[in-house]
Amino acid sequence: MERDTFSRGFLAGISGGIAMLAWSLLSGAVLQISHLRNVDWMAIMIFAHPPAFELIETIIAMIVNVFFCGVLGILFAYLLPLIKREKIYLKGWVFSLVVWLGAYAISTIFKVVGTTPTSVETAILNISGATVYGLALAYTTNKLLYGEIKSSYGTNVAPAMKPLGDREDKEK
Description:
- This protein is mainly alpha-helical.
- It has one domain (5-149).
- 71% of the residues lie in helices and 0% in strands.
- Helix 1 crosses helix 3 (55-83) and helix 2 crosses helix 3 (55-83).
- InterPro entries: DUF6789 (IPR046739).
- Keywords: Membrane, Transmembrane, Transmembrane helix.
- The chain crosses the membrane at residues 12-35, 55-80, 92-110, 122-140.
- Pfam families: DUF6789.
């Protein structure tokens, strides 16, 4: 079976994006570690105003954020043959931190309202979110591109009957 790097990379990126989003929402909203979650960064980029956001804006930002993570997954999947598969978790983590640092650099250079200045708590939350993304991306990419595809419930696919050739030999 041919491996579709594009689709599998996109799915791996989406799974990492969902994991990062879950972590960001949990730590930002429930634990109140930070006032600026990953989804808030995306909302600022889309709607060009600082928080507070309406519910529909937050939902749109979540969808766009997960989509963007899927695109990053495609990039990671195509980079992987060049940087080799060994230590894939380290490579996924470094990849995600480079993207995070790039986002911070762009928002700082262009003085994006609502993202600067950044508190230590926000930076820690976003570094940890990037870490969750990078590790989930590496895990899912490894499984989708290089892992064996197993049937559900751990069953093995086997023929339900003996081959016809054996029965014909016995009748003769």
